[in-house]
Amino acid sequence: MSTSPEIIKLKQMVEDSIPRKIKTPADFVYLSGVIFERCGETISETTLKRIWGYIEGYDTTRFHTLSILARFVGYNDWDDFVKENVIDPNEQSEEIMQKCIYTKNLKAGDKIYYAWNPDRECLVEYLGNNVFKVLESKNSKVQKNDTFVTAFFVENQPLYLDDLTRDGETYALFVVGKNGGLQVVEKTESL
User: Fold this and answer.
1) Handedness of CA 57, 66, 94, 30 (dihedral sign)
2) Angle, to 10 degrees, between the axis of helix 63-72 and the axis of helix 25-39?
3) What pairs with residue 131 in β-bridges?
4) pLDDT digits over 50-64, tens only?
5) How far apart are the C-alpha atoms of 11 and 4, rounded to whole Å?
6) Which residues pair with 121 in a beta bridge?
7) Spatial separation of the C-alpha atoms in residues 38 and 31, rounded to whole Å
8) How do the domains of the chain map onto residue ranges?
9) Coil, strand or helix: which one is 100?
């Protein structure tokens, strides 16, 4: 079981980037599939179960495996993740001061406005079950009437859109604000 503070944080970021918690064997099958869709690389369900402590396993996790998980949440590799997420062992808790909107706190019909550089904006409507529909889009590849799945919007962090659907065609993953993250996130009525 992997219990270093960095691995714990990586696991949390992985869980936060998908619309379900990792609790059952089926969740590990799902996660393995989503990792393959996003990264084009595989991590077996058994390896994921070991990392999450669901089953007994090795005390260490291979660099390559950690790098795949790091790429899954937007980093180049494990070294890049660790460099950007240095955790002082004497201070393993941190206060997060970034604005965050969780879908679990929304109701169908709520609208979210988000913006990122350079000069890109979207207004989306929550449809339920972590699904959003794009109502308005400015200077973005995401277009009006696209739908996507996400669990949360966080200022200063990239937004991962799973199952982006346009004109009946579904794309596995689209990343908004990869460089610099979302600059604005708010519940609103208009763009």
Assistant:
1) negative
2) 80
3) 128, 149
4) 888 888 776 678 999
5) 11
6) 115, 138
7) 10
8) 5-84, 100-187
9) strand
Judge if the upstream peptide bond of residue 118 is cis by omega within 30 degrees of 0: yes
Strand blocks (E) in the chain: 100-102, 111-116, 120-128, 131-138, 147-149, 152-154, 159-166, 169-176, 184-187
Enter the tokens of residue 16. 């936060």
CA 133/CA 143 separation, integer angstroms: 10
Residue 93 gets which letter from DSSP?
A: -
- Going by their DSSP bridges, the two strands 147-149 and 152-154 should be labelled as unpaired
- pLDDT tens track for 132-160: 999 999 999 999 999 999 988 988 888 98
Contact 121, 138 (CB under 8 A): yes
> CA 145, CA 126: separation in Å to the nearest integer?
12
